């Protein structure tokens, strides 16, 4: 049988994995500076969590979830996004009883049954943050700023923030009525999915990617024109805080995001090119309560790492991802091979990466192996060097070579690693 990787997934090979590690390290360091703590949740949850959390009328729930029944007859779903799981953990662990706000982040795989394309896979990865316990507009701006700084730290140009307010349960009903009133005479122009949402959740129609639906909704009533006083004031303060943080943004009054739990602030990070939307998020003041907790506000984002890497590639940005070993030990002769075993141990104990030959190759073959591994140094130990308690060290990039005391090798390589 010819086994192949499932459609919409990727093998990350050596040389590529290091790029992922680099951007993940950047995300973790950024979160440390913004005082966020990491949380890791299961890859699958009860299906009902996503139905209630993400929303019955979303494309995710209606079309894209990987759902299965386990041997106990329970319906489980591979997580299609990160927020619902994080909120479930927040509620289940009763973190709402601790001093607020709570600031968490996560990095990991998500799963959606979509048509695979550049930057969009069925198993994809997100870096996300969630904040609970405050409605302060300044926190909305801080979360947006963190996401923007992530792209800036990686060196991406042209990233901009698209911003909108999707209101709250008090002002949404007015907009809903206006929207139904506007769309009903035009319902024949809507796709099948949007037609089914007209009565259930007309705001979802604004998120449709179908060209005919987009033409219909281009002049539809805008939520920002129907905000209550609290939502309007909140939105104005978010914008003021973003200006103070020097975060560039543009208003996109058609944006509603693809999830039902958003209230008030909604935003996306977009860039020209194949990557398009890099990620986004928003405020979700009713989600904790919906999932069984007390009334507790929240805000967060999820950023696609595949799309981030695609954008970096499109801009020709090489990540300084380190690959290869610090030192490849070349041992010639039986006694030298035995000494090489302890040399590797010494190198690794001081924090250096090291390897040696295990195929009994000659000197030339071992040097080729060192090159293939991307070794910075080759340490050459023959019988004569061993008798003199010395070793030759060659820097492969320059060809420079010198002979040093054998017991100095670990410190020599460690120092070169720092330079």
UniProtKB/TrEMBL annotation:
Record's subcellular location: Cytoplasm
The keyword Repressor is assigned to this record: no
Gene Ontology biological-process entries: histidyl-tRNA aminoacylation
Enzyme Commission number(s) of this protein: 6.1.1.21
Gene3D superfamilies with a match to the protein in the record: Anticodon-binding domain, Bira Bifunctional Protein, Domain 2
Group of enzyme by EC: ligase
PROSITE patterns in alphabetical order: AA_TRNA_LIGASE_II
UniProt xrefs under NCBIfam families: hisS
Xref: HAMAP family: His_tRNA_synth
Protein known as: Histidine--tRNA ligase
Source organism: Paludifilum halophilum
């Amino acid at each position: 049988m010819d086994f192949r990787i499932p459609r919409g997934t990727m093998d990350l090979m050596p040389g590529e994995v290091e790029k992922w590690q680099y951007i993940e390290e950047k995300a973790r360091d950024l979160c440390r500076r913004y005082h966020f703590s990491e949380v890791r949740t299961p890859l699958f949850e009860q299906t009902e969590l996503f139905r209630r959390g993400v929303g019955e009328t979303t494309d995710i729930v209606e079309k894209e979830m990987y759902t299965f029944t386990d041997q106990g007859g329970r319906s489980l779903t591979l997580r299609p996004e990160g927020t619902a799981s994080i909120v479930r953990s927040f509620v289940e662990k009763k973190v709402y009883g601790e001093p607020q706000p709570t600031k968490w982040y996560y990095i990991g795989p998500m799963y959606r049954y979509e048509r695979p394309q550049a930057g969009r896979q069925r198993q994809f990865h997100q870096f996300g943050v969630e904040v609970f316990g405050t409605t302060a507009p300044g926190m909305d701006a801080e979360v947006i700023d963190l996401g923007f700084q992530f792209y800036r730290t990686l060196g991406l140009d042209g990233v901009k923030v698209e911003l909108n307010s999707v209101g709250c349960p008090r002002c949404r009903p007015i907009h809903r009525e206006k929207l139904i009133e506007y769309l009903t005479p035009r319902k024949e122009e809507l796709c099948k999915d949007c037609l089914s949402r007209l009565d259930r959740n007309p705001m979802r129609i604004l998120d449709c990617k179908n060209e005919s639906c987009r033409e219909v909704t281009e002049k539809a009533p805008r939520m920002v024109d129907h905000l209550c006083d609290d939502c309007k004031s909140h939105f104005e303060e978010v914008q003021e805080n973003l200006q103070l943080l020097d975060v560039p943004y543009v208003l996109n009054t058609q944006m509603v995001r693809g999830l039902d739990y958003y209230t008030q602030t909604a935003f996306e990070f977009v860039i020209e090119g194949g990557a398009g939307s890099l990620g986004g998020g928003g405020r979700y003041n009713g989600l904790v309560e919906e999932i069984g907790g007390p009334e507790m506000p929240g805000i967060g984002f999820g950023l696609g790492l595949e799309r981030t890497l695609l954008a970096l590639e499109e801009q020709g940005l090489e990540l300084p991802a380190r690959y290869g070993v610090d030192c490849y030990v070349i041992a010639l002769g039986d006694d030298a091979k035995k000494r090489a075993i302890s040399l590797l141990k010494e190198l690794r104990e001081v924090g250096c990466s090291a390897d040696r030959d295990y195929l009994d190759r000659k000197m030339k073959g071992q040097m080729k192996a060192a090159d293939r591994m991307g070794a910075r140094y080759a340490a050459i130990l023959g019988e004569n060097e061993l008798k003199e308690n010395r070793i030759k060290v060659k820097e492969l990039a320059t060809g420079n070579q010198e002979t040093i005391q054998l017991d100095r090798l670990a410190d020599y390589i460690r120092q070169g690693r720092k330079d």
